[in-house]
Amino acid sequence: xxxxxxxxxxxxxxxxxxxxxxxxxxxxxxxxxxxxxxxxxxxxxxxxxxxxxxxxxxxxxxxxxxxxxx
Length: 70
Fold this sequence. Notes:
Layout: H1 2-12, H2 18-69
């Protein structure tokens, strides 16, 4: 929350260095992309784990059906 007030103070100043504001904007984009990429990798990891669990459940079901037939 403090960073928002600091950013607003920078924007409202009359002698603002545009490069300083641009650096904050670029930093914001970098942080958002990092969060987005971590989220996407997390989803991919969850999906991979679910596929492994489905294969395990199918194998266990098949083994259970084979043991009931025998």
